Amino acid sequence: MDFIKGIFNAVADPRVYFLLMVLALVGLVWKRESIASNAFGYGALGVFTLFFALGGLDPNFRLIITKPDNVPIVGLIFLLVFFVWYSMKQAVVNDRRIAKGEGPEEAAESDRVWVWPDLVYTELISLIVCSIVLIVWSIVLKAPLEQPANRAVTPNPSKAPWYFLGLQEMLVYFDPWLAGVVLPGLIIVGLIAIPYIDTNKKGNGYYTFNERKVEITLFLFGFVVLWCSLIVLGTFLRGPNWNFFGPFEYWDLHKLEALTNVNLSEYFWVRALGQPLPTNYFLRELPGIVLVLLYVGALPVLLSKKLFKTYVDKLGAPRYYVTVFLFLMMMALPIKMLLRWIFNLKYIVGIPEIFFNI
Amino acid sequence: MTDEVKPPTPAAPPPAAHAAPAVAKPAAPAVPPANLAGKTTTAAAAAGKASTRDPDDTSPLVTRRVWLAMAWGAFSAGSAVALAATGRFMFPNVLNEPPQQFKVGVPADFGMGVDERYKESNGVWIVRTADDIAQHASGFYVLSTTCTHLGCTPNYLSAEGKFKCPCHGSGFRTTGINFEGPAPRPLERVRVALAEDGQILVDKSRKFQYELGQWIDPDSFLQIA
Amino acid sequence: MAEKKAVGHAYNIDFLNVVFAASSIFLFLSAIWMVWDDFDREWKNTQRQFNQLEIEVTRANLAQAEGRVNKTRLTQLQQQLAAQQKAIEAGRQQIDEIQAKLRDVDARLFRVNQAAQFAKAKYDVDRYAFEVERSEHPEAVAERQKEIEAQADRLREVNLEVEKVVGERASLLSELGKYTGQAVALQKQIDQLTFDQNRLSKVLDTIQPSFVKEYFRNAPLLDFMAPTLTVRQIVTPNVVDDVNFARVAKMDRCTTCHLAIDRTGYEKYPQPFKTHPNLSAYVGSDSPHPIDKTGCTSCHEGLGGSTSFRDASHYPRDAKQRQEWEEKYHWEEPHMWDYPMLPTQMTEASCEKCHRSEVYIPNAPKLGVAYSTFERAGCYACHKTKGFENLRKPGPILTKIGSKLTQDWVKTWVRNPAAVKPVTWMPKVWYNANTSAPEDAVRNEVEISAAVAYLFANSEPYQFPVPTPPRGDAKQGEQIVRGIGCLGCHVIEEKDRTAAGPRRTFGQPLQNIGSKTTYAWLYNWVRDPKHYNPDTYMPDLRLTDAQVADVATYLTTLTGPAGDAAKATPTPQQADAVLLDYLRNVYGTTDAQARMAKLDANARQLELGQRVITRQGCFSCHQIKGFENTQPIGTELSEEGTKLVTRLDFAFVHIPHSKLAWFHQKLKDPRSFDEGRVLEPLEKLRMPDFHFSEVEIERLQTAIMSFQREIQPASALPPRTAKRDNTVAGRARVRRQNCVGCHEIEGDGGDYKALVSDASLAPPLLTPEGAKVQPDWLYAFLQGPITIRPWLSVRMPTFGLDDGRWNEIIRYFGATGDSIGPFRTYNHAELTSQAVPGKQMFDLLQCQKCHVLGEIRPDQDRTTLAPDLRMTHERLQPEWILRWLQNPSRIQPGTRMPQFWPNYPKSDYPQLNNSADVQIRSIRDHLMTLRGGPTPKRATDSN
What is the ipTM of this complex? Predict the structure, then answer.
């Protein structure tokens, strides 16, 4: 038993966990034909239920999942997995139909919309069921009231609400300006920009994957892998002092981890060139600045010539550059995470003198 | 919802059955398909209201009417309970205000006449009299400081022996009887009793109104020699 | 469901109907569950149970009240009343007539009253207008004035009319009274007789359960109107809770379950229905802490706003109760509130919230002994604590150690003090939990030797006043030591420090003193302690030199265990390694080695010794040369009681995660928190081990929990008066000088009584002293005591304190005795006017049989002796003498003075009109004339 728990604890290490999430996405897209069966769906449900049920026997895990704040996250995992599987399943079914030339299912009844009583009745029933869930939930799970707030005593760990746990995780790797303002802002800007950059007229109003491969994959990557899985990571795998703890590991307040980090400028000047750091901060951070400029400025152009040439043609230059900029910004997060994990890299550009760090 | 077996497509209304408009409308089939036998409205209606059931009767035991009655009944009942609970929520079990019942000291602490010690903190005047107009005895009664006109707090003018409300000029004698101004009725007395430890206990949760003849109630007056 | 849907629908409507019905029913059920979950509270059950109990108790009281009623008298009165009723019936006609007339008169009175009121109102208005006008236009008002005066006359007439009618009414009433008056009086008598009974049966009616109460007033949803099961709350505007971002008035809802806490009669029932103990001091409405002004949590802590057992942070008083609660109530360590309830035996720790810096508070004896233990152990010396600043160092001086002890003895002592004297308060500094490993022995010995070497190298030379004193008789010495009062501060054979207490171990234990120091030192010390240590608290017992020799000889016979031997013999290299370890933390290794190279072996040892003493903090308790201004090494304890448990380091010790458990562990074994850790020697914990017993630990926990952050506003504190200030200062002074070790004052102290067979052989009770003696006599006495009670073998020592301290004590007595002060003069002429008859009473009552005036004959029975009354005129306060003569044992319980007037104010003697007061007064007057008795005042003192 401890051996299995040890495996889970090791697997839940952020590096492994993140890799698994990416692999899971790859697997979902690549093997979507076989995933689209009910057998797979029920199987996944069984696996997850078994995991939580058996895992719940462990006192440490039980403490996490029964904390009133975390109960919805357990529900989130189930719902997320269900909806991703379900939509992929519907997409595969529709894709099969489209390949046969039949048109998607939704087109079969496109001349009418069932409202009265179908929609309204089911809405009423949903209302009732929702009310029941809320009432029962509020009776069974009491709000976790604690001591009066004391500004001299910070709770350990101090976790953001679940919808911000992804950002809190990002704050480990990025400067607060970036992680808290720039990147979330870009998320919103990106969402606003979708109507502009998404010129694919297909897939409107019906499930499909083949007709919108890139768009769906990109979205799943950004939403499920980056946003949601980081929320799950922040809920279950981050403990006191924001240290990593496996799901079956005891949250030891005094656990120590060596988190010494090095700036790119130090790597470049001190380790590679053997020189002391230049006193002028611009000179000192020049390698990093150059890199960033290349990433944001030169890389899109490079990509437009070779890899993304089809997209330049499809979207036109302005749309393409907007899209690739947003794409590169999104990829900056996993790239930075990898750099941190592999090289202990703290900042690519680190200018604390003017509060500017990347 | 995908269907493995589809009913005959009701694409167009059976022309023979309806004479008039060429407007396509979703048509109800004249004959329900076989696999829906017994499960539609007409079938339920056709089953009739026979109190004894045929062995061949395939109509549902619990008619749709019963289901709906139960459903709407339970829904209204549940909503009513939730509404009542919300209403109950408007009356807190405990309030952070001075208590309705409180002790004011022993009778020996008070002289004859009006005592204003508890006017500000608890909203009452403690009055000691040698001959009460309602009880014809000596002792204590306690007046509420709420003017019976529109609820302001009157001031006690000891020189003139009256309570005078500054809002609209209502005047009350030390007995509480209104005699001046727009006040329609006398000040209310509140319950007063002698507690076990010998102190006077004032209980504002019970009020006594003169005009309803309640000042003769023994709870409204503490007889002390 | 797909295949069953009807044409024209997306879903099967029949199925949806079923789903709708099912979910609606669940909605209804969950709504009911929600209402029930909110309604069903544990405190309501508690209140229902109490209701049952209350009914039982009230019924029992009612039965008792009925039993107490004098039945014969009652029936008598009732018969008389019946007779009166008949008489009233007989005179019914007249009564009706009178009442008719009364109604007319009432009507007339109403009209006339109204007329008078209207006239007065009009007059008031006109008069005021007139006054205003006159003040503005004084010339134009002559006519108006006449009008006003006329009005005033009319008003007087109207008032006169009113009086007339009132008079008529009164006379009618008295006529009526002739018929009904008797009945009314009889009814009143009956009511008086049955008062208790009536009251209790009314109470019983009110509290009886009823259908309406159960199913309407207390029903779910309907209980917003007038429930009988309610949350009871006490809001205390003066006493506040500190919720970190605000100070809010306390809202204590404890009385929701503790319903009888302020009612007498429930003392025998289990919690939560028990009456609070000592109602006249706490909680009762006539106590200084009435519950509606102080609430509950100001003393007991806990979350007052809670109405459930667990959330209120109730705390078990011991391990047994903890287990009980864990089983019965699933009790856990409270985490909801930073200040859980104090275990009941530690409640007095909260007194300090308002009684700030009061070392002794009557009705809080546990706190008093807690502070005594805290002070005697000397915790304040290392741990700065508010209220205990500027107190003397608790240990003996080490500045002259060379003249008193040998190095070997000191090393053995320091190694393990309790092995030499089990009762000592000196803690063990080395060989503790984190320095007991075999490899630590060398370092320990090095440090001990170095520290002791430092002490001896810095010892002042000291010349004994009597360098070669003669020897005496040990047996005589023992008699003196055990009889004269040494045992009030020193123990000899006792081994249990807890049982002896902090007062009887106020001075050093005498157990091993013979093997500790020389005869010469003992002789000179006993003869004149202040010569060796000018600040010592050891007083002068006014012994003759021969007696001193006897005492010293006896003390040298007291020998005991030799203590622990050294566990290692370090080499010089090992010693150097230790010194290097100290130095390199300050100077770095190379620099340290350089410095060391410059010193010779002796200098190195002294250097190490100084550093060891600095690190271990010996100077906090002992005066040591070179450490006069060094800051103590302990954590400040001024707010330790308010400290959050998250600030305490539990390390690897597995104890419950609570403050009290941590304090317990720390006091039991201070260095145990180093267990399991990897530490440099200089990183280890330093608190020494006092080998506290469980009782002492609990006392110290109480003391620590009383050190709290001050948050209560001034309106919550006891009002400051000179009297109160003097009382507080005096109480502290008599404890810090250990007066209470011998004398009982204000109900506390007098530990010496345990050492004598009869209370009258112990030092006298000093509670009445303020009202009893004249202050300037007391001052002279304290400076140079004389024998007052010839039968005592204990004697009051000469303490030699400064005026400031004596005056503190004298003012304290004055404050508690409610006597005016030291500047009062007495009119002796007045006070002696009845002296002549007084002498007759004096002879009649044979006062001289016990109160010998003059030389005491050698064959006089010592057990019947009493103080010499010639001292009276300058010693006793004249009013006090009257109270004393009246009833001596009320002032001094257990006194041998008889009560001559047991039937006061009646007298058993015929003299002076058989009046006890006059007789007592005359005796007093006679006593005030007596002269020539022993006096502490010197010829230069004004009399």
Answer: 0.85
